[in-house]
Amino acid sequence: MMFKSVRPGTIRAAVLTIALLGGSDAARPQEYSFRYFGSAEGLGNMSVLNLYQDETGFLWLTTKNGIYRFDGEQFEGYGPAQGIPMNAGTAFGKGPDGAMLAGGDYGLYRLVRNRFEKVPTDFSRVSWLQGIGSDGLGHTYLGTDKGLIEIERSRSGSGYEERHIVRPKGVTGKAAWGVLVEGDALWWGCGEELCRKDPKGVTVFSANEGLAASEWEAILIDGAGNLWVHGRNAGEYVRRRGEARFNPLEEDPQLKTFVYGGALDSVPAMLVSGVVDEP
Predict the structure, then answer these.
(1) How do the domains of the chain map onto residue ranges?
(2) Of the chain's two ends, which shows fewer C-beta atoms within 10 Å, N or C?
(3) pLDDT digits (tens, 9 = 90+) for 10-42
(4) Which fold does the domain 2-272 belong to in CATH?
């Protein structure tokens, strides 16, 4: 497995960092450093599906054979011995109390003193790719099988309270998928459409804006303000800043690759992984 970074000597040096830039910025030369990781560093599977960097700087990966945490030098596996089921699909995020959350088809878990604990919920599943989003102010949103749910710290001080976000009119299906918090706006995959909620109201994006009907599992905004979405069995679409319509990625000659399931860095940049043949 290969990771690359623009910042050697930090945790981010273990991550493939790609700045998603639009227009002429994409053509500017970039300098990267490369490091290779595998079983010698404790990584038990080369197929990385998702990445997340927590508040303390640890990098969390979900692979086809479970979860790993990277401390800058070594990977440590997490599974039933650490309280969480072995599962290939896991979304990571920040809880309203600052704790790290992990969610997937097995429900929602919270990391407590290096061990995961099951969170009692009214829903059964969290969308594994990008189903957890936080505004950093005590509000966390989850894409679940019962729709979009906001969790807050309970009044008793222990556990979370759930609030179901009303499903917008015109949405096909009750489940929610990818979640992205953008300032005071909230994006999420709603049924087979894409929804955005801000203080002015809710907007539903669908075929009228060029999107196929799909379960939108990943929603990302790059440093140039372009909006990227990934739909199950629909591929990738991009809506460039200032434009109203989405375009399928294969129809945009300037955009050759799309990476989802990553963690946004503060640059901003995208932290992603890639599997390569070692020299």
Answers:
(1) 2-272
(2) C
(3) 333 333 333 333 333 444 455 555 667 777 787
(4) Methylamine Dehydrogenase; Chain H (2.130.10)
